[in-house]
From TrEMBL:
Gene designation per UniProt: 107360955
Entry keywords, A to Z: Oxidoreductase
UniProt-recorded Gene Ontology molecular function terms: oxidoreductase activity
Entry keyword annotation includes Oxidoreductase: yes
The protein's name in its UniProt record: Uncharacterized protein
Signal sequence region: none
Domain of life: Eukaryota
Oxidoreductase among keywords: yes
Length: 257
């Protein structure tokens, strides 16, 4: 059984989607959370829901930040520690997707932004958090993607960033052991606001359903459940693991009609 009672968790990218679902689940399991995002209105809504779900009505620490700026990454950590004085769990969920085609005039500047948010910010936050997590025998869960394993030329910079994140997970698992466990969860298609930004989200979602063996789209709570497991003592035997939660997309028959 997963028990996060009184654990302190910093969850980035938690104003909606997977991050919000994780914050709500952690709160319901008794954790004290710090939530981070760029949209204050969404953050306040998630914070209110977290408080209502918390058995002890813990109020989250709410941090508005944009991880394209190093100073916001540092401030996020400092505000979390200032409020809670300790840290048990770091969930690196903040991420940026990109559909810029290779060779387009602004592709390189877009690539830099993707790497900054998806990789550099994770590295920086991990560096800051590691000493505190060592004191609590804590845990890090990085939210990667099936794109780290299954290439998509149309999202080349995103794929590269998530592949780097998987390798960072493995390297830090070895570096921070035995005091800190570091694992990754790699979702496939998940019903988040990412799809609403596409030209025809319904068509994309329908196509994903047809391609994957389980014939469904993951909901944010599906991924949050895996994150909670990896963060908890129920996964005490796991570190350096890359855990797929992709509705079977990686093992789909490429020739199936």
């Amino acid at each position: 059984m997963i028990n996060l009672a009184n654990k302190v968790a910093l969850i980035t990218g938690s104003s909606d989607g997977i991050g919000a679902a994780t914050a709500l689940l952690f709160s319901s399991l008794g954790a004290k959370v710090a939530i981070v995002g760029r949209d204050q209105i969404k953050l306040d809504k998630v914070a209110a829901e977290c408080e209502s779900k918390s058995p002890h009505h813990y109020k989250p620490v709410v941090i508005k930040a944009d991880f394209v700026r190093d100073e916001d990454v540092i401030r996020t950590f400092e505000e979390t520690i200032s409020a809670y004085k300790t840290l048990d769990i770091l969930v690196n969920n903040c991420g940026l997707a990109s559909q810029k085609k290779f060779g387009e005039p602004d592709a390189i500047s877009d690539y830099d932004r993707v790497q900054q948010i998806n990789v550099r910010a994770v590295v920086r936050l991990t560096e800051l958090a590691a000493p505190h997590l060592k004191e609590t025998n804590g845990s890090i869960v990085n939210v990667s993607s099936i794109a780290a394993i299954r290439p998509n030329p149309g999202s080349w910079s995103y794929c590269m960033s998530k592949a780097a994140l998987d390798m960072f997970t493995k390297c830090m698992a070895g570096k921070l052991a035995p005091h800190v466990r570091v694992n990754s969860v790699n979702p496939g298609g998940t019903r988040t606001n990412f799809f609403s930004s596409l030209a025809d989200p319904d068509a994309v979602l329908s196509s994903l359903v047809q391609k994957n063996p389980l014939k469904r789209i993951a909901e944010p709570i599906d991924i949050a459940n895996t994150i909670a497991f990896l963060a908890s003592d129920a996964a005490r035997n796991m570190t350096g693991s890359i855990v797929l939660s992709d509705t079977g997309l990686l093992v789909a028959d490429p020739y199936a009609k």
